[in-house]
Amino acid sequence: MKHKMIDGNNVSYVVSELSDSDAVEWDRYVDQHPEGTLFHKFAWASLIKEVLHQKPRYLKAQNSAGNIVGVLPLVNLKSVVFGNFLVSMPYFNYGGVLADSEEVASVLVNASTDIADKLNVSHVQYRCSSECMTESFPVAKHKVNMILDLPESQDALGKSIGSKRRSQIKRPIREGVSHKIGGRELIDDFYEVFCINMRDLGTPVYSKKLFESIFDTFPDNTNICVVYWEGKPVSTGFLMHYKNKLEIPWASTVRYANYKATINLNG
User: Fold this and answer.
1) What is the pLDDT of residues 132-182, one digit of tens each?
2) Which one of 120, 171, 185, 234 is least enclosed by Cβ atoms within 10 Å?
3) Where do the domains of the chain lie, and which CATH numbers do they carry?
4) CA distance 36 to 25
5) Count of CB atoms within 10 A of residue 261's CB?
């Protein structure tokens, strides 16, 4: 797909789908854009295609000089349960339009709706903050992002969370709870807890290969934290960091550990 679109100021932009040769310029654009996230990065396209077998439809907008002035990563999801639709980005909270202006954002959104019509999908879903969208679309409000500004030191963070929360952290440590923060070597412990928790919730699990591939693709942006109780992994978080933000896309705790923690903390 490659076609020219004109915004309301009669400025033309060429919108086309991503090719491998665009990877460096695409990532450079994401890196310099203030709203750019790790989930906008080019490498997700091949990872999702190879591991999850879903088709990426990444769009870029270029000005008359051939420079990228906007990007929109899209993935075509097909499911017996949820149907056929486009989403930017699946599996994560972010991944919507990045653009130099509202006009460019509108051009990319219009291009995505053209693709949606051709694919006969039910809808297009943009996962981003409200500021990234310029069109008046229905907004799902059943989920919220909770963002915590981190202070400069551990002591300052401890003071900010209050004495009750500090005691809730210290007591399990005295009773033998330990933790590790590491990398790919903790995937097995992470995945054990993740699978148990998803089973208890009645939710299908992703394959372990997905998490292994994320580490292989973004080794400098990924960590795992595992909490151990009586030598067994009982709680875990998959951490991804980029620019000045740290996010936990996946976190799980086995139910019996929640129960024991409640008894101990209130005991």
Assistant:
1) 555 566 677 777 778 888 888 888 988 888 888 888 777 777 778 889 999
2) 120
3) 2-132 (3.40.630.30), 176-266 (3.40.630.30)
4) 14
5) 20
* Residue carrying structure tokens 């409200």: 130
User: Which position has the token pair 């399990």?
Assistant: 172
List Cβ neighbours of 47 (8 Å cut-off, separation of 6 or more): 213, 214, 217
Q: Is the peptide bond preceding residue 89 cis, with omega within 30 degrees of 0?
A: yes
Q: Of 3, 7, 28, 6, which Cα lies nearest the Cα of 17?
A: 3
How far apart CA 2 and CA 59 sit, in angstroms, is: 10
In one-letter notation, the amino acid at residue 261 is: A
Tens of pLDDT along 24-45? 999 999 999 999 999 999 999 9
Question: Which 3-state string (H, E, C) describes the chain?
Answer: CEEEEECCCCCEEEEEECCHHHHHHHHHHHHHCCCCCHHHCCHHHHHHHHHHCCEECCEEEECCCCCEEEEECCEEEEECCCEEEEEECCCCCCCCCEECCHHHHHHHHHHHHHHHHHHCCCCEEECCCHHHCCCCCCCCCCCCCCCCCCCCCHHHHHHHHCHHHHHHHHHHHHCCCEEEEECHHHHHHHHHHHHHHHHHHCCCCCCHHHHHHHHHHCCCCEEEEEEEECCEEEEEEEEEEECCEEEEEEEEECHHHHHHHHHHHHC
